Amino acid sequence: MNTSPQLPIRIPAFRPTLGETELEATRQVFESNWLGVGKTTDKFEAELQEYLGASHVIAVSSGTAALHLALQVLHLSAGDEVIVPSMTFVAPVQMILAAGARPVFCEVDPFTLNMDPEDVARRLGPRTRALLPVHYGGYACDMGRLGLLARAHRLPIIEDAAHAFGSESAGRKVGATGELTCFSFDPIKNITCGEGGAVATYNDEHAREIRLRRNLGIRNESWNNLEMARSWMYSIEAPGYRYAMPNLNAAIGIAQLQRAELFLQRKRQVTRLYDDSFRNLEGTVLIRKSIDESFPFSYVIRVLDGERDALMAYLRVRQIGSMVQFIPNHLQPQFACGNVRLPLTEQLYREIITLPLFASITDMEVQEVIDAVIGFFAAG
Ligand SMILES: Cc1ncc(COP(=O)(O)O)c(C=O)c1O
Q: Which domain holds residue 189?
């Protein structure tokens, strides 16, 4: 086995695009002496609401917290089932369990890596209580077909839009019209807050309950009460968590939101360049996508003939990072799904590779990635 130390990665799969704007925004919060949840959080929420065209947006401490709260307001109980693709990050699966329900894993479409509505239909049962599609890579799921299915069975949809901040579906931003849409602003997402997330909803009651639950069930947030005589007074009106987004993180988010359009244009441009370069590359399959409607999060291709790991190693030697997103959840020991088989998902798991894509990637870095991938296949 080769144990020689590897050279550091020069072109990572993801890198946050941060600069003076974000630094200045955090400096202002430092100077205000109010780092925790407060008026900057309120401002970020208002700006997100406007950007998305959503009725309510509630900013929280992570995408995982957003999913937890969105699932909680459905008031699920033991034995209830939520259908979710196995090919996703572990967060939605853990949060389904945390909300007291059971994940039922479904297949994804091999050309989009998004939830396959036909497979969902096959897995619906008397205990199904919700659908949890994930907009993989930033490309919206087929919400028309999933919506029909959900309405026919009177099921709510929780959209995991961790990857899809700023993307559109049927001419509206993801999150503008959905019952419960969850975003992540972790360090590698389309925009980041350092760590953060948000829930968007059209439902007033869901919004009220999520606001309570994100703040330990406390009704009146203290920063709104500062001028009142009894500013120490609060009332607990729901179960809750410490999930609110602090001012410090919201300030980074506000600065990133100002640059979101630039990030989106650059990520679209690089995605088109990659697609044009790899379209006729034998031994690969491109992911089908609507770039013009989307804020691409990641760039993923399928590598056939068992060559994926060799390509990753080839790139690694050239100091280029890559990832596998994701390890199917039904294969994880914690979820004890020994008898569940999802052949398509398992095949895709062996084929997918995430190549470098981030707003600050340079033209030279993009060309290096393209040359390395093409070089790998040319070398046979
Ligand atoms: C599909 C998906 N859902 C949810 C999350 C959780 O978001 P966060 O990291 O902000 O908790 C992630 C994070 O990578 C994700 O990829």
A: 20-259
